[in-house]
Amino acid sequence: MYYQILDHLPQVPQHFIDKIMNNIDNLNFDEYMKGRRTPVAGNKMFPRSPVEDDLKDWIITHITDRGHLIDVAVTDYDNNKVALRPHTDRTREYTLMYLLKTGGDDHRTVFYKPKDTTINVVRNMDFDYNELNEIDSIHVPLYTWTLLHAVTVHSVENIPGMRVAIQIGLEENFVGL
Ligand SMILES: [Fe+2]
To answer: Could you tell me which of 144, 155, 151, 177 has the C-alpha nearest to residue 6?
Structure first.
């Protein structure tokens, strides 16, 4: 399994979500994006910033105390780029994601294996689509904790609009995925 929907975990209280969305609305987004690095060359930018302390405390109490990065990740219009191209994450084995805005109705998180089976897939890699075979995909649901294996090659497709997610980095599979 490359993902698991954890709908038994509690939903994030609305006032935290309102605050995140207000903060994003109040940002000068172009300025915000300018200071960020593109994580993978040619990729859509997906900058992250840490969540505020009160939400971090709520997550530690109600979701997990094992997250080593707890961020809000935002992407918006970015020179017609509509995908996060195939990659493995640099900083985490698993991502526990709580999606607040999808980026597009047809959004899809796709998992792949390299056609060349001798390639050892580790962290911080990127690939061209033609090097890969699709093995699975998920339409990550809104407002639902979803665990994703971040070191399986994955992309996010069809996200022309703004996508917003709370993301927690985990080193171990705390739910037995
Ligand atoms: Fe990723």
So the answer is: 144
